[in-house]
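hey m, so remember when u said the tokens were messed up on ur end? i reran from scratch. heres the input so u can diff it against urs
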Amino acid sequence: MADEKNSEGKISGLRTRAEETLSSRQFDKEEVSALSPEEIQRLVHELRVHQIELEMQNEDLRQAQVNLEELKDRYLDLYDFAPVGYLTLNDKGFILEANLTAVRLLGEERQNLIETFFSRFVSQEDGDTFHLHLQQALETQSKQTCEIKLVRKDGTDFYAQIESVAVQDESGQFNRWRTIVLDISERKRVEESLHEAYEFRDTLMNAIPAPLFYKDTDGRYIGFNKSFEKFYGKTQEELMGKSVFDIAPRDLAEVYHAQDVELLRSPGIQVYDSQVKTALGAFRDVVYHKSTFTDTQGHVLGLIGVIFDITERKKAEEALKEAKDFLDRIINSITDPVFVKNQEHEWVLLNEAYCNFMGYSREDLVGRSDYDFFPRSEADVFWDKDEIVFRTGQDINTERFTDRNGVIHTIVTKKSLYADPSGKRYIVGVIRDITEIERADVDRRNLESQLRQAQKMEAVGTLAGGIAHDFNNLLTVVLGFSELLLLGKDERDPSYADLQKINQAARSGADLTKRILTFSRKGESNPHPLNLNHEIKRAKKLLTRTIPKMIEVELVLSDGLPAINGDPTQIEQVLLNLAVNAGHAMPDGGRLIIETQPVTLDEEYCRIIPGSKPGDYVMLSVSDTGHGMDHETLTHIFEPFFTTKEIGKGTGLGLAMVYGIVTQQGGHITCYSEPGVGTTFKIYLPVVSPEGKSETTTDKPALATGTETVLLVDDEECIRDLGKRILERSGYTVLTASNGKEALHLYKKERHKISLVILDLMMPEMGGKECLKELLRIHPNVKVLIASGFAADGQTRETLAIKAKGFVGKPYNMRQMLQSVRKVLDAT
């Protein structure tokens, strides 16, 4: 409108100026005639100039008119297509002017809209509001704003923001209104949605039982739920806009504030334990969960937090911990192993007795199963029996169990099923280790069997001695009279040959009687101190002529052998009988090994071998590489007339006589044999002092001791037990294995601790010879003692040649074993 007025003013000015110029230049004839030519020429020039100026002014006028029209069109476009509706109302409220936007908003044609009462489009509920709005604009003569609902011609409605200002008419009276109509329906919808969101947020926050709060970046509370007010015991007025320093003790407030600062500096999620002091002065244990919130551009606006009151939970946890500690004390005071397994067969609870029983720490066991510690065959059995408990609720059974040292235990396990409140099921088990009881029972049965055998041998010996004595008397008569008859006969007499046969048979009977008497320890004997090595060397010449030539006789005699009290003839008979038996066991040839060694038998050894007594002995070992004997045969070999030979090829008195000679001289004999392996007889004869008296009760030399760790490998449980007790009594730490595979596994695991391996030769799965080869691959300088009941130069010599450090005989005796162990350990 201002541009239009400026254009009109310019055009009017130009017109006025032209008129003044023309009117000022009116001339009559007298004046023209009075002018000089120069004046006329100047006047013409001025007229031309004025004419040009007038033409220019007319051109400016035409251009101004064009600009004015363009301004009018532009103004009308801006007016009609403005984003808001423009209306002019008179003092009655009728519409005088309306732009196209207003027409579109009201849904009425412009020609129908002019002089229409605007209140027609105002909703009924907002009519008074609109009239008050116009009245205020008139009275204040300033712009007024209100929000009302307008109804279009088609009946649809929308929310509008109305801005009105009173204006003057031509007479200067304020009786018109310029009104702007802005459609705010979308804004209203957004506001309503936002309001609903706020309502939902507040409802949701107040439905959360845990205290919840909002803070701005300055740490002031800007929102919280009812639970927060209740928890702190403060009202909204007391909390809103406050900081933690206004509602908490300073020491706690500083903790909260430091955590808030850290979270705002490094946005994310923050969780920490703390305490809260309520308005009532009570302290509560809580857990804070906090995180930051941002605007749409990602700028941090503050933080939101939730407080979880864990006071009661901590009390319950303390009570539960006390109860658990009490239960642990009870369980750990139980001397029997106790365990609990879950449905995955994993240990979840163990007492100290169980850990000691297994040989592992609680940390090693919890969360693991039987398959992590036992051979698969054993673990499968345990698994199957656990499944029985899960199905039936309980089970009691006897099981075999191998501990980490390879020791096999016999256990009685009582298991029952337990289900917790959540329905999870567990096995609760108690173990009773009856290994020692079972071992003692086995030892008792063995001792009873050996005692019965000894009693039988004693009874047989007594009977045989009595019969032999009477039979010898009869033979004396037969021999005497037959010799008298032979003296009176000519050799050509036909009866002479018959008498000779009778005499020869009687002499054979006498020899048989002598052997029976030897077995019964009633035969004649002439014992005196002698060197056993010397007697063996003398007997070797006889042996080489007696046994087949394809049998090689080897002597392994210990130097400095102490003297024994024996009869040289009987010693020769012992060697001859053992050699003959060995020859029969090696029809295709082999080796006969005779070994001597000083030994000391202790009480532990004598407890296992009935008839033996503690003391110093000389051991005579006779071994062969023959076909060996089974267990049943071994139980009868020393009985008179027992033989495995064909009829006519043996009397069954050879070993019985050996038994009698050894026992008569205060010693004892043992035999080790396996089919296909060979046989070893070990004879222990007591040593005597230089004066010829037995030294079985003399002072014993000090036992060799040590602190190293020894791995003892043997498939016989009683042998492992004996060896372990001997070594542990002397200060050693002992690990045990029942076969070569277990030994290798244990050595790989504990090689840095193990100083010596005592390795049995004959074992299932992997024998000592193969095990030694594998040990040497692991550690070329490993120290190994070979243990065997056979001679050290029998099958053992091949193993010793592989780089074993020495030999120890079985069954073990304390001094011999400890001396051998110490000797190998001290060797460089």
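this time it looks ok to me. Confidence is low (pLDDT under 50) at residues 1-5, 519-524, 692-699. if urs says something different then somethings off w ur setup not the seq
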